[in-house]
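Chain A, query sequence.
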Amino acid sequence: MSSISIQPLRFALIGAGGIAQTHLQAISKSDMAELVAVVDTRLDACRAVSDAYGCSAFGSIDSMLQTCHCDAALVCTPPSTHPAICEQLASNGIHVLCEKPIAIDLKSAISMFETARASKTILAMASKFRYVADMVFAKQLITSGLIGDVLLFENTFAGHVDMTRRWNSNPEISGGGVLIDNGTHSVDILRYLLGPLVSIQAIEGIRHQRIPVEDTVRIHAKTDTGALAAMDLSWSINKQSPWWVSIYGTCGTILIGWKESKYKRDVDREWTTIGTGYDKLQAFKSQLDNFCLAIRGEEPLLITSEDALASVEAIHGAYESMTHHNWVQVNAYPSRTLRVVS
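Chain A, predicted structure.
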C-alpha cells in the first residue's frame, strides 16, 4: 500500500506568525498531513488561519489538548518558548517538528529530547535547507568524490532586514541576534555536507542597527575532516552574491545558488547545471513529508537529534568565541550527552 493511500496525520500549528505561513502552504500541498488545529495567543492571527484552512482555533495548548486529537504539531513560536511547548506536546503523545533553533541552550535542548524519548514521540528540528533539492544533490556529488577532498566551505546569509521591531532582536526571546538566527542554519548546512565541527570562531562586526544584539557576524569553523569554513551573516549588509553555499575541493567546485546551482571539475571546460536554486515551498514540503514518513516508520529523519543538539552546541561555542575573542572547541562532549536521546 502506498503512503498516499494512508490516512493523513492530524497536525496542529502552534504559532501563526510569519514562518508558519510557509508551513501552512506545505501542509496544503502534502497528502500525508492535514491541519486540524491552530494555537496562538493572538486570536486575530489564530482565526485568520482557522478561516483560511478550515481548522479549529485555540488560544492555548491546554484548550486544544482538551478537545482536539492531534498526531503531530508544528511549533512556530519564538525560541525561548520551545522547551515548554515541545515538552508539553511530547508528554501528551504528540510528535513535534519544531522551528530552529530547537532551544537557546544545550541543557534545555537535551531535556526536550529526553522528554520525547520517554514519551516515545519524535522531536525534530526544522532545518529547511537540508531539504532543498540542489543541496541534497550537492551532498551526493561530494560523497561520490566528484570534486575530490573538500578543503573549503563558504556560506552567506546576508541581506538588509530592519530588526528594530522584531522579536528576533530581543535576546530574552531569541537567545541572541543574527548569529543564533541565521547561524543555526549555517552550522547545520556545514554539518550536513561535510560532517561534525571540531572548532569554531565568531567575530562580530559593527552594530549598524539600534538593537541589543549582533547584526553582522563572520564565523570560521573547522570540520573533523580538516575542511575550513567561512560563514557571513548579516541583517545590515547585502553581499549581492548569487551563491549562498560554495564548496571547493581538490578537483573542482560546487556552487549552490538562489536561482541555479552548478559544478565544475578542474578537467571540465564548462559548468554543469544541477538545479534551479532555492525553492522554499519544495524544501518545506519535503521536510514535512520526511517528518511524516519518520512518524510512520517508513524512512529515517534527514536531521537527527544529534544534528539538532550539535547545532545548539556550535552556536553556544560561537557566542563564547565572540565574547572571549578566541577559537572554541565544539563536539567535545556530545558522545556523553547525545547517548541520552539516541
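The CA atoms of residues 182 and 233 lie 7 Å apart. Residues 333-342 have pLDDT under 50 and may be disordered.
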